[in-house]
Amino acid sequence: MDFGKLPNVDTVDFTLPPDHPFNQTVWEKVEPTASPEVYIGGPLWANKTYVGRIYPSQAKEREFLHYYTRQFNTIELNSTHYQIPTTGMIDKWKTEAVGSPVRPRFVYCPKFPQAISHERALVAAESLTEEFVNAVLSLEEFLGTTFLQLPPNFGPDKWPVLEAYLKNLPDDLEVTVEFRHPDWFSKPAVWEKTLERLCALHRHLVMTDVAGRRDVLHMSLTSPTLVLRFVANEGHRTDYERTDAWVERLKGWFEKGLQTAYLFIHGGEENDTAPELIRYWVRRLNAVCGLNLQEPTIRPEVVQGSLF
What we know:
The chain is of the alpha/beta class.
């Protein structure tokens, strides 16, 4: 089962927690912008169920990325968790993003390889890190933030390792850290110190809204950039209620100075409702927050070329 997923969510309290007090430190350093950057997409483009829904009915697998970049403006790039991308892969990703009509620009958000984060736990990983960083930086204008997902056994006692690793990453690499060990969140003093340190390092935080791990919905920011992983439950009624609550919270954050939001919507495994849910997110963001995001086009059947 995926991280934090539950087989039955009928009794889960999905109420959004209040903002963490540390957020005020972030708001004090920024001014609200009339045009925040909002990137919204899913975790994969290689989904055959998208054919006839958001891809043309005649689309081939090799064309899926091309059509994905014309429906959304970002992706949680999980493939890099299992393989450092080759030059050929990077070139293809850039080519498919070029000329996309989606605005703002399409950006990839690659996840650090598990060989670095999980197998080596950030230790003695200099060579692999250099290879990964050089690869993703070559995405140039198509690179958004990167994900450093820490393994479940990486607890607060390993902060010195994380700090040393983050300090050795180049300043021009945007990095977002995802914590999963419960001890980061169960001890308020530890979490407060972690926020202070990440803020000083100019690194962002991943926030995950998932049924079975409400502690990782920490509502904390270390910068005016939000990185949210929203894990839906295959079209359950609460998926849309939760979206409404998030949009209202985002409206308040934009008014306080949130500059950038990366929103990654996971629709579910057996019944991937991400495209429909992303469309709902976009409609609500545009209506409530005064944005002008492009909606994905969803139809029961499409004719090759009719969408574009």
